[in-house]
Design a protein that fits this description.
The complex is a heterodimer of chains A (656) and B (338).
Chain A (H helix, E strand, L loop, with lengths): L1 H4 E3 L3 H11 L2 E8 L2 E7 L10 H11 L7 E3 L14 E6 L2 E4 L5 E10 L9 H8 L7 H13 L4 E4 L7 E6 L5 E3 L5 E3 L5 E4 L5 E4 L3 E2 L12 E8 L1 H11 L4 H6 L8 H14 L3 E4 L2 E3 L8 E5 H8 L5 H8 L5 E5 L3 E5 L11 H12 L18 H19 L3 E2 L5 E2 L1 H6 L20 E2 L4 H11 L7 E10 L7 E10 L3 H14 L5 E5 L6 E11 L2 E9 L1 H6 L7 E6 H6 L16 E8 L6 H11 L3 E10 L2 E8 L8 H14 L1
Parallel strand pairs in A: 5-16, 6-9, 21-24
Antiparallel strand pairs in A: 1-4, 2-3, 7-15, 7-16, 7-17, 8-15, 9-12, 10-11, 12-13, 13-14, 18-20, 19-20, 22-23, 24-25, 25-29, 26-27, 27-28, 28-29, 30-32, 31-32
Chain B lengths: L1 H17 L3 H12 L4 H8 L5 H36 L18 H14 L4 E3 L4 E3 H4 L31 E3 L5 H10 L4 E10 L10 E12 L3 H16 L4 E7 L4 E10 L10 E10 L1 H6 L7 E9 H9 L14 H4 L3
Parallel strand pairs in B: 1-4
Antiparallel strand pairs in B: 2-3, 4-5, 5-9, 6-7, 7-8, 8-9
Classes of the chains: A alpha+beta (656), B alpha+beta (338).
């Protein structure tokens, strides 16, 4: 197919390698006997290249850059004059109406008689099969062959099956039904392009598939050779809504060029005539809005600067001329190009032309440079966020926690199992799974699921995650807050230790734990808010047993969550430093009964505010409900005496 | 006195040789050198001596004391060393310190990328994951009819449409940060990297509905394709190794013109296509996009690229993960491998 239009000395491997560097990507080439099958990936904006002709044009432009010979030959576009020479004696009238201009840009058709359908394997059929398509019969094969060769879908109707020799191209109503060539009965969504005959039969689901009622069969002698250019948006919508996706759809939805239809028509007609077909009607050509070609003016300097090249205006024109771009005026500083119709939608400004020039020139010929420029500063809040996350990650991963990455969306089931209410969550309209429907407002449920999912794979789990939560807001994007979530199968005090160490490492100011009861998924007696002054920076607790069981987690788990923005706000800007004491310190121990009126956090605060000489107040042992604390007393600037220490000790003893 | 001194010195040798434990040595030390030990006893007897001999004997006692200290110290060392030599330990048994946890492979990859680009003067930025259609598509020169805006290509949030910014969605690409950054900085230079969670409705062995993308954006006077190539090549060589090469091939993105697909060659001809693997997309920022960012495209130009993080993380590790879904499955056997 390719060699119909291309004269070259390049091998298929060379074509694959070189063209892929400057044009459509040749994914694979396969040798089958004496043929080579090219599998080419064409981007959506280059439907003009999705054919042997289009690809040949790319070859003609690119291969010479690698010192290969390559010219276009037999270019059908050079002869797009609508013409069909072999006339039949008996002529029919073919009446085609386009009900609405917006449905199609151009409709071309003609009747051919003296058609003999054979299912003997032809060369065209063989080539079609190499391209992965079914060979059906001579005429149907010809239509598919034309599509691959020239990049424009065409259709063949059995003329005798069209009532009244009349074709009306109109928009469908909702629930109209058509049976397509593959035998499927399709109920139409409405606003689809259909072709109807005089009796109201739908003979074509336009741009998608022909109707079974006008199918080419062994008995067909007279055909309508139909070359339409349908409105791509319509075709795509119908295709999506009905789930019918065919090769024709892939072309029309990307807007094939109506101006090229003429050449396709002429070429196709010639092929049909070769099979013995005779022209048996006037040629129909409905082309309501022909566009004259447009021009693009380009600054030579602009193109050279953008692409880091040093080409002259003549060099630029020469590079892209084989693609169909003609320089209608050119100076050393500016060029005006006339844009071929099949690139009209894609090439509209200077940067588009620059791209054409540069890709043919060869991106590998462009040097590599590094930018220079002013130093840019990062916003402080982002700097702080990344720095804090880095520190948290470093500590937690080294101390035995595995970092998790969970989906930002969770299921209704998980929310409810963790005692939440879906009403608080932002929901996805079109999720593909129940598992990922609601945007998280806390990291804890996902971490609980992580533990549940991993049961049996290890004897204990320690996970953490640094991620965002999404808080609904009225008439605005949700508030996205960075959190850190922790979960551990070790006990509350273990996790509390980890959290405390984290806060210490970050130099968070004086934090305290405020026992609370309102977090419903945590055990009533084992939960606390983490406070710095009046700012809440997180919480910690043990998961309620009923919730753990609901997840089939057979042991206790502790969880914690930190709110990074609030935490960062209370990080001390300057780390407090105190010179190590060289003066004597006196240690005294005290044991108290732990209960709701005697909690360590409170006692510690009170102790420090009662005694100015207190240096530390640390738990040394806990036995049942008796807590033993070691206190150190001393002066910064002189030695403390036993009696002074005793005085301080008594003050604190009184509290307890 | 002299006799005493000699007796103590001589019996020391015998006593020391009979000692085989540190405990016994300590006891001996106290016996001889303690408050009530033999040496102190001698000091107390000094007063019974002739005045002119007190000094001489004092020195002799001190000298004996130092000798004893030395001998005891020597013996202590001997005892310690021989106990070391005689006790046997299987030194190949597993160690006993707390085990470290792990960082997710995505975190490690992100950290490395940030480092590499900060050397080039890029700042790392952060943008909304839940975005408006406007920033995700319209501002990026993608019209309403573009396939990417279909239901099956993007996740939409169930919430009323905004009169100006359109529907709310989960961003399908990090490019949604481009115009936001232009509006934030206002006047170039702009050099930013954005690594973020991105979302697309696909969930099978090679796709996950949430993944990470990494965007680079560089806008200034005189920025052209050679700068794009230079920056990407620098990144690729820092990240994958000095032997790596890149190449650009033509592609089509609506928000860049020209657009490219970037391939990398890591050195082995046995992977990808003759050794070339797809890295991601790139291009020169489209003038329409600059316009949305209130940047004059006649003065400033820019380049942008977008790569998938999971992909390059696996490429670097030479890891083949047969089923992508394990990335975010939470499986501890996956996590502990990094």
């Amino acid at each position: 197919m390719l060699l119909t239009f291309l004269d070259t000395d390049a091998s298929p491997e060379e074509i694959q390698e070189y063209v892929s560097l400057g044009g459509p990507n040749v994914e694979t080439i396969e040798k089958v006997s004496n043929d080579y099958v090219y599998d080419v990936e064409v981007t959506s904006n280059r439907i003009d290249a999705a054919s042997a002709l289009g690809f040949a044009m790319e070859c003609a432009a690119i291969l010479p850059r690698y010192n290969k010979k390559a010219h276009l030959v037999n270019n059908p576009l050079d002869n797009s004059a609508v013409n069909a020479s072999h006339q039949a004696k008996d002529v029919f009238s073919l009446d085609i109406k386009l009900a609405d201009d917006s449905l199609a840009q151009r409709i071309m058709a003609v009747v051919f008689s003296n058609i003999t359908i054979s299912s003997e394997q032809t060369d065209m059929g063989r080539q079609l099969e190499l391209c992965g398509e079914r060979s059906i019969n001579t005429i149907v094969d010809l239509s598919n062959y034309l599509r691959i060769l020239l990049g424009h879908p065409v259709h063949m109707f059995d003329f005798d099956k069209i009532s009244g020799q009349k074709m009306i191209i109109r928009s469908s109503k909702e629930d109209e039904v058509i049976t397509t060539l593959d035998g499927k009965e399709i109920k139409l969504p409405g606003n689809d392009i259909v072709v109807e005959d005089e009796d109201g039969n739908l003979i074509d689901l336009a741009g998608i598939m022909g109707g079974k009622n006008s199918e080419i069969t062994q008995d067909t002698h007279t055909i309508v050779f139909f070359v339409p250019t349908f409105n791509g948006t319509h075709i795509r919508k119908t295709s999506m809504k009905t789930g019918q996706r065919t090769n024709a759809v892939a072309y029309f939805e990307k807007n094939v060029d109506p101006h090229r239809a003429g050449a396709v028509f002429t070429y196709g007609s010639t092929l049909i005539e070769k099979l013995g077909g005779l022209v048996a009607s006037d040629i129909v050509d409905i082309f309501p809005h022909q566009k004259s070609s447009h021009n693009v003016e380009v600054s030579v300097e602009y193109v050279n600067t953008l692409c880091s090249m040093h080409l002259t205006n003549d060099e630029m024109s020469e590079l892209i001329e084989p693609l169909g771009f003609k320089a209608i005026s050119s100076s050393s500083s500016d060029i005006t190009f006339s844009i071929p119709s099949y690139r009209a939608l894609d090439v509209t400004n200077q940067s588009d032309i620059a791209e054409e020039v540069a890709r043919i020139y060869g991106y590998h010929n462009i040097e590599n440079n590094m930018h220079t420029g002013l130093v840019i500063s990062q916003p402080q809040d982002i700097k702080d966020l990344f720095q804090t996350q880095k520190q948290i990650r470093a500590y937690c991963s080294s101390i035995g926690f595995n970092e998790q990455y969970n989906y930002s969306m969770i299921s209704k089931d998980l929310i409810e199992k963790c005692d939440g209410n879906v009403g608080d969550y932002l929901k996805l309209e079109n999720s593909i799974s129940e598992e990922i429907e609601y945007l998280r407002t806390s990291l804890v449920p996902s971490l609980v699921k992580n533990v549940a999912d991993n049961i049996g794979r290890a004897s204990s789990f320690n996970f953490f995650e640094c991620a965002r939560i999404y808080s609904k807001q009225e008439n605005a994007l949700p508030l996205e807050r960075e959190h850190v979530g922790f979960i551990s199968t070790n006990d509350y005090f273990y996790l509390k230790g980890i959290v405390e160490n984290t806060l210490e490492l970050l130099h968070v100011g004086n934090y305290s734990f405020l026992p609370c009861q309102e977090i419903t998924y945590l055990a009533e007696g084992i939960q606390a808010k983490i406070m710095v002054g009046t700012t809440e920076i997180g919480y910690i607790g043990t998961l309620r047993t009923s919730i753990a069981l609901a997840h089939d987690i057979p042991f206790q788990v502790s969880v914690a969550e930190l709110y990074l923005k609030d935490l960062i706000d209370v990080i001390l800007p300057i780390q407090p430093y105190s010179t190590p004491h060289t003066f004597a310190r006196i240690k005294r121990d005290i044991t108290y009964q732990s209960d709701k009126d005697h909690m360590y956090g409170d006692l510690k605060l009170k102790a420090f505010s009662t005694s100015k000489l207190l240096l530390s107040f640390d738990v040394i042992s806990i036995y049942q409900d008796k807590v033993s604390v070691r206190m150190e007393f001393g002066y910064a600037d002189k030695n403390i005496t036993e009696s002074e220490a005793l005085v301080e000790f008594e003050k604190i003893k009184a509290l307890v | 006195m002299d006799d005493e001194l000699t007796r103590i010195q001589q019996s020391l040798k015998t006593q020391l040789s009979a000692i085989s434990s540190l405990k016994d040595l300590d006891a001996l030390e106290i016996d001889i050198l303690g408050r009530k030990g033999s040496v102190n006893l001698l000091f107390s007897k000094l007063k019974d001596e002739q005045p002119e001999q007190v000094r001489e004997y004092g020195e002799k006692i001190n000298s004996l004391k130092n000798h004893i200290l030395q001998e005891i110290s020597l013996k202590k060392h001997q005892l310690l060393e021989s106990s070391e030599k005689s006790s046997w330990v299987d030194t190949t048994l597993p160690g006993n310190a707390p085990k470290p946890g792990s960082l997710h492979i995505v975190t490690q990859t992100i950290e490395d990328i940030r480092d590499i680009f900060s050397r080039l003067g890029f700042i790392h930025m952060s943008y909304p994951e839940v975005e408006w259609e406007y920033y995700a598509f319209d501002a990026l020169n993608m019209p309403k009819s573009h396939p990417a805006r279909d239901d099956f290509e993007t996740f939409f949030v169930e919430t009323p449409e905004h009169p100006t910014y359109g529907k709310m969605l989960l961003t399908p690409h990090t490019s949604s940060g481009q115009v936001r950054e232009m509006l934030r900085v206002k006047t170039p230079p702009i050099r930013m990297t954005n690594i973020s969670r991105t979302y697309r409705p696909n969930w099978d062995a090679t796709h996950v509905p949430m993944f990470h993308q990494f965007e680079g954006l560089c806008i200034d006077k005189g920025i052209n394709i050679s700068h794009l190539k230079g920056a990407i090549e620098y990144f690729v060589q820092e990240f994958f190794g000095k032997e790596c090469k890149i190449r650009l091939r033509p592609y089509d993105f609506l928000f860049t013109e020209p657009s490219f697909e970037v391939d990398i060659y890591t050195g082995s001809k046995n992977i990808g296509r003759a050794g070339w693997l797809e890295l991601g997309g790139a291009g020169m920022v489209h003038p329409n996009v600059l316009k949305e960012g209130n940047i004059d495209s006649s003065i400033y130009t820019g380049w942008a690229f977008g790569f998938g993080i999971e992909r390059i993380a696996m490429m670097r590790g030479g890891i083949t993960i047969p089923d992508m879904r394990i990335m975010y499955s939470g499986d501890v056997r996956f996590l502990t491998q990094f």
